[in-house]
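Q: Sequence in, structure out?
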Amino acid sequence: MADKKLVMLVDTKRCIACNSCAVACKIENNLPKNIWWNRIMTVGGGNLDSPEGEYPNLKMHNVTVACQHCENPACVKVCPVGATYKDPETGVVRQDYDKCIGCRMCMSACPYTGVRSFNWEEPKYSLAHAVGDADAPEHQKHVVEKCTFCYQRISKGETPACMDLCPARARHWGDLDDPNSDVSRAIAGRSYEHLLDEKGTKPGVYYLV
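A: Exactly. Output:
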């Protein structure tokens, strides 16, 4: 069992689907072209930013989707080389690019479609120089990537970049086992949901409703 239970809370009532979290993630982790570890999905109509129902009876809300950093991760169980693993100190599901053999078993086992990406070619970038944190892992060809909760930041006691840049303050981060943490206080008295709770993965991302 991990020493801490580091989790992310997303307040769906405050999220304004501005995509700041996705952009912050991309810059902080120097993500290659066409790679996004964080996405904003509209729950409602058939298209982005479209509600369900008929006027005036419309409803819509947004859900940010990334790796769920599960307590019982399906991806870890199927990785044949231990490249996908749970960090023993934080409980964060991590990816070792140097060990990854590109078999993509983790992508097949993960019930959360689209939270992982695979670098088929040598990564290409929009800018000629790296951006973001100097400690962010270097991207490699033929490996699987995903959200790391900005491990290069949280290992230094900082918060994930997506939370820092959220203008609506819809995100909370911290140790859920600590009753005085930001996440413990934020979740008190609130209802929450997990994505695909029925899969038994016990996600580390909580959606406040």
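The chain is about 15% helix and 20% strand.
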